[in-house]
Amino acid sequence: MRRKLLIIVLIILIALFFMVQGSSYNAFKITGYKALKTITYYNNTKVNKDWDLHETNHFIINSKDIDSNTIESLGILFEKSYYLIGEEFDYYPNKKTPIIVYNTMSDFWDHIKPLAGQDVMGLYYMGVIHIISPNAFDMDLNEYEKNGAVLHEYTHKVVDDITGGNIDLWFTEGLALYQEYINYDVEWGEGLVFDKEYTMEELRDSFLSLEPVQAYKQSFEKVKNIYEADKDRLIKLLTELGKGKEVEDAFLFIYGENLFCQ
Predict the structure, then answer these.
(1) Which of helix, strand or coil describes residue 119?
(2) Which runs of consecutive H residues, i.e. helices, occur in 46-168?
(3) Which of 223, 235, 236 is nearest to 262 (CA)?
(4) Are 162 and 183 in contact, with CB atoms under 8 Å apart?
(5) SS3 91
(6) How many whole angstroms separate alpha carbon 164 and alpha carbon 154?
(7) Residue 260 has what pLDDT?
(8) How far is 18 from 28, CA to CA, in rounded Å?
(9) With helix as H, strand as E and coil as C, how does 179-239 read?
(10) Each residue's pLDDT tens digit, 167-201
(11) Which residues of 83-99 are buried (b: 16+ CB within 10 A; e: fewer)?
């Protein structure tokens, strides 16, 4: 019954999308996105007899064919990220975050078919974190903590919650990379210099089609500059995005200028 009600709500929201424009449209879009996340949350927290379940204070971890010690260690890393990122953004989710851990890259590709063949360590999507076990990369836990996907993907979850999904891809990726930098002293693309940098317009409109190392590096550098100039203002910016403001309007409201032009 609950699921049917959510679907009805979504149908109503989709109809409303065509009746409003501008910031009102953005606000409705955020509401619809949150409803979709609720459905995804429900589908990934109900008991599934085919998966092994492990719960911590703030996470629900589903896995298959992975030893319990590895899962418990990952749970500890996620709990650590909960407090590190929570302190940074002053945000601590009340509901437990669903996590799916895959034993191999093949397992991940089988479940996340759009990413089949791509060498990634994790994915955040609609409130759910997907990661590949450290066993698949032949890493010990310390190496995996610094170079794996736990902190990175959890940052995406927090930023997504705060903004209601109303954030550019380059921006959320830059924020996640910056958290790796300040917490683990890991800098994406350290020392790399590019002959020609992507424009802000390219980062905003074509992020996924750009050369990834350069696109992520530039995103990290842009966020680093904004973050270190005034962290409190950046947090306020995310809050304004969560209210439904257009990205350009949010920058103008917080900074008095459109930083996308720089």
Answers:
(1) coil
(2) 68-89, 105-111, 141-147, 150-163
(3) 223
(4) no
(5) coil
(6) 15
(7) 60
(8) 10
(9) HHHHHHCCCCCCCCCCCCCCCHHHHHHHHHHCCHHHHHHHHHHHHHHHHHHCHHHHHHHHH
(10) 999 999 999 999 999 999 999 988 888 999 999 99
(11) ebbeebbebeeeeebbb
CA distance 168 to 147: 24
Q: What is the mean pLDDT of residues 85-92?
A: 97
> How far is residue 80's CA from residue 5's CA, in Å, rounded to a whole number?
36
CATH number of 49-164: 3.40.30.160
Coarse DSSP helix, strand, coil percentages of the chain, rounded to the nearest 5 percent: 65, 10, 30
Please state the φ and ψ torsions of residue 68, each to the nearest 5 degrees: -65, -35
Determine the Cα–Cα distance for residues 155 and 179; give it in Å rounded to an integer: 8
Segments of the chain assigned E as strands: 52-55, 59-63, 97-102, 122-125, 128-132
The C-alpha atoms of residue 15 and residue 224 are separated, in whole angstroms, by 39
The confidence score (pLDDT) of residue 45 equals 62
Q: Work out the average pLDDT over 213-237.
A: 94
Residue recorded with tokens 């089988």 = 110
Kindly report, residue by residue over 100-109, the tens digit of the pLDDT: 999 999 999 9
Q: What predicted TM-score, i.e. pTM, was given to this entire model?
A: 0.85
